[in-house]
Specification:
alpha+beta, 3 domains, 67% helix, 7% strand
């Protein structure tokens, strides 16, 4: 299985590198770099300026590929491991019962119980976990022979014996083992040799058996190689051993309670992250609701991409922040009241209408592929409504800027820098949908996706500007109200 784990480690490392880059640079920049690399190697022919797939799409593709590879690798490894076990079992003469090894000699019975049965492994794990020592070979054989002797006395296993200088095997009565027991000594040829000895206090002469055998199927039925209950007990002992090892390591460090809290907190965070990613992947992308000011549900503002040039919205906000105090100095009471009304209207009705327009567009962008397939005309109608709503909001912004052009902060804050880019992205997306034939081709998603990606990028920038402008309007209104 080591090959599988190495390959999976490489796959997860690639996925981790991609996610780390996406968290640092943003999904749009990361996907653009991925597309550019794919274009250079001839994997795709989409131009670099139009290659803007979504993070969700790439994540789904990577997850599907990883799962399929995991299944294939595990199936191949399972087959190879099973074949290797069969070869090892055949080499150790531990294959399932066949004509040549139907019966098992006494020493092999003891070795099977001690080393290969589930009960024998359980005894070794108990000794290791509870006493902190490895169960020696002699002690393991002694425990196995004692267990075999009890089973023979109770009649759970029926041995057949052959007297010395004879050829026939005869059944040994279960009560015979109340006077006899098993013992073993080292042997130069077979490592160990088992024989029968009288029990303590027995003076009778015992039959001289030179061989004791039992059917292999009976032996494996009584002491199977794998037993669900015993395997579960072994698993519990293994977990307990790991916990003891961690506890021992923690006791050597100070303070131990803080280390435990850190370990538990890390495990909890990892669990929450895995559950959250699994749920997000199962649920799929959801539209972001930008509610009214009374019940704000403003979209999150993405971090500025490292190395990228800030757009006009960010520069205008920074400039407005730096000059707010200077612009408010020397204003008359009438000007202060006027600007308070301006910022209140921007913060409330204007930005709420802007949010509703963005929500209208997000409902189309979120699941455009299925919507185009099911009802293309409805998508075009909603895109038209989205475009008209944005145009109305843009007109109201320009009206405020023209009416109150004497206030520099109003001009800067209400300047929507990427209005033309947003309108152009909507028009291009709509034209791409209209250009599709009545019977959609199988690759229609690939033809429309570049335009959908551009529209999604512009939507993100516009949503960021809308959220930032609302906060700036609220900040300016509060500052003026406190004067």
């Amino acid at each position: 299985m080591h090959l599988t784990f190495r390959l999976l480690a490489c796959l997860f490392a690639l996925v981790g590198i991609y996610l780390a880059a996406a968290l640092q640079n943003g999904p749009a920049v990361t996907d653009a770099h991925v597309c550019e690399t794919a274009r250079r190697f001839g994997i795709t022919s989409i131009p670099a300026d139009q290659c803007t797939p979504s993070l969700d799409l790439w994540g789904i593709r990577v997850a599907i590929v990883v799962m399929l590879l995991c299944v294939v690798f595990l199936m191949v490894d399972a087959y190879l491991v099973r074949r290797k076990k069969r070869e090892v079992s055949a080499a150790n003469n531990l294959s399932p019962a066949s004509y040549s090894d139907r019966y098992v000699e006494l020493m092999h019975i003891i070795l099977w119980i001690a080393d290969y049965s589930a009960w024998g492994r359980w005894q070794k794990w108990q000794q290791l976990v509870l006493n902190g020592a490895i169960l020696g070979e002699i002690n393991a054989l002694q425990g196995a022979s004692s267990f075999l002797h009890k089973a023979a006395m109770n009649g759970d296993i029926h041995l057949q014996g052959r007297l010395r200088n004879t050829f026939e095997y005869k059944d040994v009565d279960q009560h015979f083992w109340r006077k006899a027991a098993f013992n073993f000594n080292p042997d130069d040829r077979t490592l160990w040799r088992a024989f029968v000895i009288p029990c303590a206090g027995v003076t009778d002469t015992l039959p001289d058996f030179d061989s004791l055998i039992v059917e292999r199927s009976h032996l494996e039925k009584l002491w199977p190689r794998h037993d669900l209950k015993i395997d579960w007990l072994i698993t519990k002992l293994w977990i307990r051993a790991k916990c003891q090892k961690v506890t021992t390591a923690i006791k050597k460090m100070e303070p131990s309670h803080l280390i435990w809290f850190s370990v538990m907190g890390t495990a909890f965070c990892a669990l929450v992250g895995i559950v959250g990613l699994s749920w997000q992947s199962y649920r799929g992308p959801q539209p972001i609701v930008l509610g009214p000011i009374s019940k704000p549900a403003v979209t999150a503002v993405p971090a500025q991409q490292p190395g990228s040039s800030p757009d006009n919205s960010s520069s205008s906000v920074v400039a407005s922040v730096k000059t707010t105090e200077n612009q408010n100095i020397g204003l008359s009471q009438e000007d202060i009241s006027t600007k308070i009304d301006i910022w209140r209207s921007v913060e409330g009705a204007l930005m709420n209408d802007f949010a509703n327009a963005l929500n209208q567009g997000d409902s189309v962008i979120g699941g455009w592929a299925d919507q185009v397939k099911n009802n293309r005309q409805d998508v075009l109608t909603r895109l038209s409504v989205f475009r008209n709503d944005l145009s109305k909001v843009s007109s109201r912004l320009e009206t405020l800027r023209n009416e109150y052009s004497k206030y520099d902060d109003v001009l800067d804050t209400l300047n929507w820098p990427r209005k033309d880019n947003m309108i152009e992205a909507i028009d291009n997306f709509a034209e791409a949908i209209k250009s599709m034939p009545a019977d959609l081709p199988s690759n229609y998603e690939g033809k429309i996706r570049p335009y959908a990606g551009t529209l999604k990028s512009e939507w993100d920038r516009t949503a960021t500007w809308q959220s930032t402008t609302r906060r700036m309007a609220e900040t300016k209104r509060k500052e003026l109200s406190n004067q």
